[in-house]
């Protein structure tokens, strides 16, 4: 029998926040220690005196630990101690050395016990090869690639399963509150399994179901809601706090993961990016003019760089790589040489 410790902080004293953070901590302890419910003998919770709206043990029951012995305690108040904190002591049968988990501000409690989490942020304009390179880099490093676009597709899939009608842009406003709640409560996990990146939604692998045209259309409309985007950013930050990740976008190193261990800014000339896009469309049988594509790319760059909310810009200290004359393999090798897990 091994004793596994953990702790997490919560943002506010509400039942939703306390139970949500409790479940998040427990799931991460279970994941890192490769546990199943039958191997968990008991869980002891303690919470600081400023957390009064829910017992953390309720979160364990909601997570499915129905046969596990649970106990909750309130910590004595000590001057200068960490506030709004939940601690866990889990007794489990495992042959492995315990992997303790500290999340949120609780990371500072036992940094010597916390496993090293590596955050890699990749930004850059459209057509610079961010997604392809991020996927290949994550695969080479054998860590999770967080496809932020797929996370919006997951909310689109949830909205479809809930029967929300979203067939045109005007439908979004009528479902606005429901969509915000779906985004705030969504349980999304990324896993690197057998060399593949898989997305789990509410505990189920939905990687293939996300690729339908209907789900994609819904995701595009849903992503226009500011509160949904904010919820996704919070979730992306939480995912990166629990496991090593590669994440790409236009504001990852500046907004989503400003504390990333490695910040990378990929770029390429508008002409090269236009040629790549032109070739993609040609292979799909879509006829278009190269000059038009290049003009659209230049216009999009200007729009992304000048927008007020999370503009496209190179993060301070980022490694800049011009991919104009480099293959995907060359870029991945160049970056891998500079990353020290």
Q: Which characteristics define this entry?
A:
42% helix, five-stranded parallel sheet, 341 residues, alpha/beta, 12 helices, five-stranded mixed sheet, globular
Description:
- The chain is α/β, with parallel strands linked by helices and 341 residues long.
- Helix content is 42%, strand content 21%.
- It has twelve helices and 13 strands.
- The chain has helices at 15-32, 56-63, 130-141, 148-161, 169-174, 176-185, 213-222, 226-242, 252-256, 270-283, 290-306, 328-338, and strands spanning 2-9, 40-47, 69-74, 85-92, 101-103, 119-123, 144-146, 188-193, 196-201, 204-205, 245-249, 262-267, 319-322.
- A five-stranded mixed sheet has the order 3-2-4-1-5, covered by helices on one side.
- A hairpin with a 2-residue loop joins strand 8 (188-193) and strand 9.
- Helix 3 (130-141) packs across helix 12 (328-338).
- The longest helix is centred in the N-terminal third of the chain and has 18 residues, at 15-32.
- It starts with a strand and ends with a helix.
- The mean pLDDT is 89.
